[in-house]
Amino acid sequence: MSVIQDASPLSGGLWTPVCPYADLLPERGAAALVGTCQVAVFRTFHGDLYAVGNRDPFSGACVMSRGIVGTRNGEPTVASPMHKQVFSLVTGVCLDDPAKAVPTYPIRVTDGTVEVSVA
Question: In terms of pTM, does the model score above 0.85?
Fold first, then answer.
């Protein structure tokens, strides 16, 4: 069984169903609209889930879900498809320019459905 982790501490907010867990391809992102927030959802090869803001803070384009998933020093990351800056999927901080970051959101699986909270 896969280990599912929250990308950030639980906020106590409402959870929004995004998709079935089985529909997320490992190391590929998916975009979802959660409330009014565009969210990029990622599943790693190990089965861990992460949710970050879909807007690239460098270009302003909503493209993070199309980024390249990888690791840096053991930390799961996504590289923006625009200018290739690398962001931590755990903290959202840009590893190439720590002054920039994308928001992270709590994510979980309930009865096989991926849920994200943006509250």
Answer: yes
